[in-house]
Amino acid sequence: MDELVIKNNARIIFLIMDGLGGLPMAGKPGTELETAKTPHMDALAKEGVCGLLDPIAPGITPGSGPAHFALFGYDPVKTSVGRGLLSAAGLDFPMTERDLCMRVNFATMNSEGQITDRRAGRIDTESNERLCRKLSEKIRPAPGTEVFFATEKEHRALIVLRGDDLREEITETDPQQTGLPPVAPRALIPEASATADLLKGLLEQAKVALSDEPKANMILLRGYARYHRFQSLSDRFGLNPLAIASYPMYRGIARLLGMKVYAPTSTLEEEIAALETAWPDHDFFFVHVKPTDSRGEDGNFDEKVKVIEAVDSLLPRITRLQPDVLVITGDHSTPAAMASHSWHPVPVLLSAKTCRPDRVENFGEGDCLSGGLGRMPMSSLMNVALAHAGRLTKFGA
Amino acid sequence: MDELVIKNNARIIFLIMDGLGGLPMAGKPGTELETAKTPHMDALAKEGVCGLLDPIAPGITPGSGPAHFALFGYDPVKTSVGRGLLSAAGLDFPMTERDLCMRVNFATMNSEGQITDRRAGRIDTESNERLCRKLSEKIRPAPGTEVFFATEKEHRALIVLRGDDLREEITETDPQQTGLPPVAPRALIPEASATADLLKGLLEQAKVALSDEPKANMILLRGYARYHRFQSLSDRFGLNPLAIASYPMYRGIARLLGMKVYAPTSTLEEEIAALETAWPDHDFFFVHVKPTDSRGEDGNFDEKVKVIEAVDSLLPRITRLQPDVLVITGDHSTPAAMASHSWHPVPVLLSAKTCRPDRVENFGEGDCLSGGLGRMPMSSLMNVALAHAGRLTKFGA
What we know:
2 copies of one chain form a homodimer. The first copy, chain A, is an alpha/beta fold. Chain A has 2 domains: 237 residues, Alkaline Phosphatase, subunit A (3-Layer(aba) Sandwich); 141 residues, 2-Layer Sandwich (Alpha-Beta Plaits), CATH 3.30.70. Helix content of chain A is 31%, strand content 20%. Chain A has 13 helices and 13 strands. An 8-stranded mixed beta sheet of chain A has the order 9-8-10-1-11-12-2-13, sandwiched between helices. In chain A, strands 3, 4, 5, 6 and 7 form a 5-stranded antiparallel beta sheet that branches. The first copy, chain A, is globular and about 65 Å long. Chains A and B meet through helix 3 of A and strand 13 and helix 13 of B.
């Protein structure tokens, strides 16, 4: 339907509370969102239209990558990418189409070659930086290839192998439990055997280079992903988008989809201030709130409630900007009761002048069941937002 | 999404009341399910999550075959199979990949070669058995082929033609009304002409063999279906499934999908007893209740209500087993008001610890409209059940 797109000056905000959807839990009759006092969201829900979104499909629990692709109107299954690519994008690594990106975990190996700690005692980020420099200096890539190391955080790093005809269909090397040796990289299809050999050579050199390290004397590889170009939000929807996000991965996803990315922010307040500052310069704003998900992952119901309330208290600063379309939702559910992502559909609220009122008076999962957006695939949301922004023309005569 | 499957010890029950969905009818303000007193299902609905399922697509009335494929998570259009295959599976006929299965109706033909009774006066099953033996003895299959006859019930039998390169794209021979001669089997595609010729020869021999029969002096062929292997529930979902069903066709479908099938049961009580007995040995239980559909087909509203109430009264024996996931639904609607299958969506109830509560307090079609499962394709149900059983991992990072 991208051919229906028309440009205008209407502005759209996607306020994404990561892991927003929840569940009740012992002694808490409602979900986190239902429990939170959200007078501003409730007022928007009353005037606007609500519903529930399935990020991938009923019953399917999404990772943050595919869920965000769905939010931005991309088919989350077709655009599925490996973690390595998301990491590289999040670190703003200048990728080329000859790159194979991978996640690295620094690990501890004993003298028998068995992994004794898959995270090398969660070394600090500074040690990680030192180790990446060491690997960069000592490793001699095979002729015709280049190799890059970049620190993520603690024991996690990125490795990028650059060369011709590299493939991602290779087994990961993390044995998944301690007491076992690393798994040798093995080609899952014949075309990947040359790449598997390159990785074997690389791992042997890494082992030698790290042999004098007390903790982080080995690396484990996973999340193989070949870089490929995505159609940008500008190409597809004629938008001039800005991403405001504190976490690297979300900044990375935004970059993969051609969004401009605002300088790193560390608090919710800073994110709203960034939105205010950048307001004249863009027409699509992706504002990503991470702590809803983090507190959900912690299993901390009350703290997740507080994050939602904090967002609500800042909402007047967003509505004061008078966006043509304001969407408030999450990328997936992270119920504190499960302390993990889940498959439960995600509540969504859309506020615009062209909303057909439904009967929802409070923004919460139970009320959203009778919302006017009904239950939709998450990847349909972008079209609905564009429609309310007057940015989609008629299909057919 | 089958690659997301993980194995654990969680147990799932699918309690399928065939033709469960209904309609109000003169003097009855609610549907059969809404009219039935179902305190146990209502209690489960209150704690669990409800919704409505479309077996094939909105407006499409399904046969039992495709509806059951959808229930078990198979695309009902792509896996569509001819009735002959379902009959063969239901009779536990040992099929091979060289088999063309067909349904046979014994019929009465007059001296002018016109069909005067398409069901041969609904001959009894014993006569059917005698006729199948007679055909087996008298018919000489063409070189390179074999032919098998097996009694189903009353005037219905199964015929299996075994040979090389048999095709199913052939016209059925039942003229659909009396006073007309049988339709000659005609190839619908050129590749099927050899098979059509084989069937013509077979029908000529059958006519001769049955010429001395007073009633059943002809056979009509329909439901052509080449056997092909399906991915099993074990292969796709890592389940160790058991089917408990009294009717051959449902046992047949279960077998086609690789389920173990419990010894035939004839009452609801026996089915529940079977479930209790087999409980330790399986992790997925398909319990099929036929009389809801039969009473619907009879147009008998009150008796269908009674069947539903009988199931409800036995429900405590099921919940006492403490399944991790209990799904109660039908394969399609069979409203007594229509005395036939219908396209109306099917009420569904899912009970598990990870349900997000909705506002449904009674299990019935009207209440299910506001259920938390929303309205889903029936083929999505299996993924939702697996998710609640903790048997699906995350999609993407």
